[in-house]
Amino acid sequence: MDIRNTTDRDPLFDALRAEVGRLDAPRGVEKELLQAFAKLHPPKRRWYHRLAVRPAALAGGVVAGALVLAFAVRAPHPVEDGRAGALVALDGNGVFIALDSAERIAAEPAPRMVATDVPRTSLAALGVPLTPENAGDSVRAEMLVAADGQPLALRLSAIQ
Amino acid sequence: MTTTPHDTDLLRQTRSGAADAFAALYRRHQGPLYRFALLRCGSADTAADVVQETFMGLLTDRFRFDPLRGQLQHFLFGVARNLILKNETAHQRHVVLDGDDGDDELPDDAACPLARLLDNEAAEEVRRALALLAPHYRDAVILYEMHDLSYAEIADICQVDIGTVRSRLSRGRAALAKRLAGWRATAGAA
Fold it and tell me: Which residues cross the membrane (chain A) (predicted)?
């Protein structure tokens, strides 16, 4: 108990001060209050936590949207400017398409791979064959994404 | 050297979701608040409920503290006192409805588990005399004698002027002295 100045206090209360001063609220009170606090302030969820619990189709749709945007940005670049060779390459696992510079991809500290299905129509600008029969199809793809969500590269693993 | 965070800093962190700040705030103030409620209403269970409801109100902003209007501890005492008054009013209404409109203001030992918490005879005698004081005298005496608050601080908590605090304290002390005179004489003789 805080005692700032006892000179004016009645000594009659000394015994009661000493006895009551050792008492605290039951531990259960703090426990219930902290539980109530936790309900009022649930832990903040990051955007990727929200994505993780959403249906896979929605996540795929978001990624596909990002791909369409990326291709829309990339599509106007002329193929004949000499950079096309660096932009698209074939490796053992399929078509590899760099969506950013090789330096940027190499410098990315925490890239991650996201598997998705890309509408074939979105890939037409990159030279993927498109016919009226397969225009509604999707192509299985893996996208390399930077820590900030920026698409870095794309591999088309099952293209026909 | 570490500095103790100010109440308003802890409260700001509490409002932004810091559980440890709320726990620190609670641990800092629960003791004095519980002891005030315990002596004021005489029941450990009621005192615990009052402490819980006071902090719950702080948490949910049901009781909004304004740092410009005084210290958090005084605000908490004021909230606890109002909750006790509300509880007493409800209890008195219940007693009257039951047809027992006698001198219900005096708590008996059966309703006062606090008596069981005190080992010291002198402390128990003072506690018993304190419990027999009228509630508005009890407020002033407990806050002054047990919590070392000034007249101005008690006036702020009880929402009365300083003169009223002074007179309540004086009358409360006189009533206590009168009730304890017999016990003092017996204890002195022993």
Answer: 51-73
Distance CA A11, CA A34 (A): 38
Give, to the nearest 10 degrees, the angle between helix B72-97 and helix B19-41.
50
For residue A10, the chain B residues in CB contact (below 8 A) are 145, 173
User: What is the block-wise mean pLDDT of chain A (160 residues), using blocks of 10 residues?
Assistant: 55 87 94 94 61 52 59 50 51 73 80 81 74 81 80 74
A138-145 sheet: strands from edge to edge = A88-91, A94-98, A151-158, A138-145, A112-119
H, E, C per residue of B120-171: CHHHHHHHHHHHCCCHHHHHHHHHHHHCCCCHHHHHHHHCCCHHHHHHHHHH
Q: What are phi and psi of A134, to 5 degrees?
A: -105, 10
Q: Is B69 on the interface with A (CB under 8 A)?
A: no
- Name the CA dihedral angle for B145, B146, B151, B157, rounded to a multiple of 10 degrees: -150
- Neighbouring CB atoms inside 10 A of A160's CB total 8
pTM reported for the whole predicted model: 0.60
Domain positions in chain A are 47-158
**B interface test, pick of A20, A31, A34, A45 with most B CB neighbours within 10 Å:** A20
Contact between B146 and A33 using a beta-carbon 8 Å cutoff? no
CB under 8 Å to B153, separation ≥6 — which residues?
Answer: B74, B143
Asked if residues A40 and B16 have their Cβ atoms less than 8 Å apart, the reply is no
Residue B101 token pair: 């409109």
Q: d(Cα B81, Cα B94) in Å, to the nearest integer?
A: 20
Name all domains of chain B by residue range, CATH numbers in brackets.
Answer: 7-103+110-117 (1.10.1740.10), 119-190 (1.10.10.10)
Q: How far apart are alpha carbons A149 and A144 in whole angstroms?
A: 9
d(CA B18, CA A38): 10
